[in-house]
Amino acid sequence: MQNGVKTELTMTEAEVITYVKRRQDLVGETAVLSCQEIGDGNLNYVFRIKDEANKQSFILKQAGPVARISSEFVVSTDRNRLEYQLLKEYEKIVPDFVPKTYLYDTEKNCLIMEDLSNYTILRTALLSGQFLKHFAMHLATFMAKSHVANLDWVLGGKAKKDKLKGFINPDLCEITEDLVLTEPFYDCPRNDMSQATKALAHELLWTDEVLVNQVKCLKWRFMTDAETLIHGDLHTGSVFVNETQTKVIDHEFACFGPAGFDIGSLVANLMFAKLHHKAVGTEGADTYFNETIHTIIDQYQRIFKEQWIKEGLDDQWLCAHQLEKIMADAAGYAGCELIRRVIGIAKVSDVQSLLEPLKSEVEAQAIKLGKALILNQTFHFI
Ligand code: SR1
Ligand code: MG
Questions:
Q1: Distance (Å, rounded) from C-alpha 68 to C-alpha 191?
Q2: From ligand 1's centre to the CA of 372, what distance in Å?
Q3: β-bridge mates for residue 66, sequence order
Q4: What are the CA-CA distances from residue 55 to residues 30, 100, 119, 197 (Å)?
Q5: Is residue 1 packed enough to be buried (19+ CB in 10 Å), middle (13-18) or exposed (0-12)?
Q6: Closest residue CA from atom 9 of ligand 1
Q7: Residue 42 C-alpha to ligand 1 middle, in angstroms?
Q8: What pTM was estimated for this model as a whole?
Q9: pLDDT tens for each residue of 60-92
Q10: Average pLDDT over residues 274-299
Q11: Which residues fall within 8 angstroms of residue 347, CB to CB, at 6 or more apart?
Q12: Beta strands 45-51 and 56-62: pairing type?
């Protein structure tokens, strides 16, 4: 038991093998299975199952009743259904950018999907200096196409409301509302930072009423603005890349929310990679990250407009107006993401892997950049 919740719902490696063996539709009688738990995220258990006999492998992702990062977070295992539903949705709209899903089990709250073992997590690739180019265009396409396809204007008001019912995600949205949009902006006991960073947070954030009020507005919009279907946690740890392809994973935060939230999360995490490389003095990193971020921002808007027309929408004023709002939101949410990864409980290795004094310097830069993005609600100055 953890926090009064039965943890025995989560399978062991041996149980996963027995479970998969029973799925003859997946592995067949000749399968020789081995299994390893490889998850390092904050929420779920991720098992890699190898079938030596048939030279194939799968990923089984199981949602436990509490978050891995802390049993304080009791999160509905329904998140597995939401993830499955979003994967199916993306398979229709942006099939090249998601892993294939083979099975969803409502009893065990697990999914079996394509093993992307020949890919690397984008955050890891970037930190190790693999300055890949293709993913910027892929992620701009992924976001713009999925966002436009789920606008009220495209689905129709009634059908959109009907679809929205299937993506109500109170527990995971609450995590975002608390960890991203509330706790970093006051002296919350759950925050986690050094004394020096705390002093800076006090000086630059917690005592700045204008900033705190802007964040309240961003939180309010996140809670109430069901603009379109969003991934909801699109950081560089939610993306797999290889030399030519890009796959977006970890879809359990899916909800109808402001489109700018996805763009902001992604851009902020690229900024963390940039700050990391700047701190350690990697040559060419500044130019690479600036170009990558600008490609995402520019291409998102270009593809958004293109999709708008493809969907048969002809009101160009509305398109421009909505895009303007989305990009302002994106800058604001990027600011919140930059600040929460420094002050809040959920960290990023871009910062955590640095030694002092570099770590504190990058934390201060992230706080200042985050603040400027929230106050200005534009990327124009970056
Ligand atoms: C309790 S979950 C903490 C964080 O991990 C996820 O990846 C989300 O970013 C969430 O905010
Ligand atoms: Mg995740």
A1: 17
A2: 24
A3: 74
A4: 11, 18, 17, 50
A5: exposed
A6: 233
A7: 6
A8: 0.95
A9: 999 988 998 888 999 998 899 999 999 999 999
A10: 98
A11: 192, 341
A12: antiparallel
